[in-house]
Amino acid sequence: MKVTLHRRGQRGNAMIEATLTLSLFLTIIFSIYDFGWVLFFHQTLVHQARTGARYAAVNPADLAGAKNLVLYNQTSTGSAGLFGLQPANVSVTRNGTAGAIDDSITVTISGYQYTLITLGWAGAYNGKTISVSIPVEN
Fold this sequence. Notes:
The chain has 138 residues and is an alpha+beta fold. The chain has helices at residues 2-9, 13-58, 63-72, and strands at 90-95, 104-109, 113-116, 123-126, 130-135. It has one domain.
């Protein structure tokens, strides 16, 4: 009689333990996914900024083409920006004196957003400003 009373009090333990373990496991999995997504997103934008800066360093008269290269991955205007980037998010400027040693191109990407899905952190967040500067080829 004592054995059945003991088992009756333990009936829901496995379900509660499984629920707690599963929720912790899913939180860890979603956190890993979010970390990977933000890293991929940021590195892709850094790559685009570097590509635009390299193009502008070789073709300093075509700053609009460099901006389009960052936004649309082509020098002409496209339909939708990479990851939803808008032309207002990207700026390409030429700094210094043309033909001098301080002549450089700066590509800046700012105001972009990424989305997290992990419970507790879910939502849209603003990314850090990405700035790439490269000297102009003379």
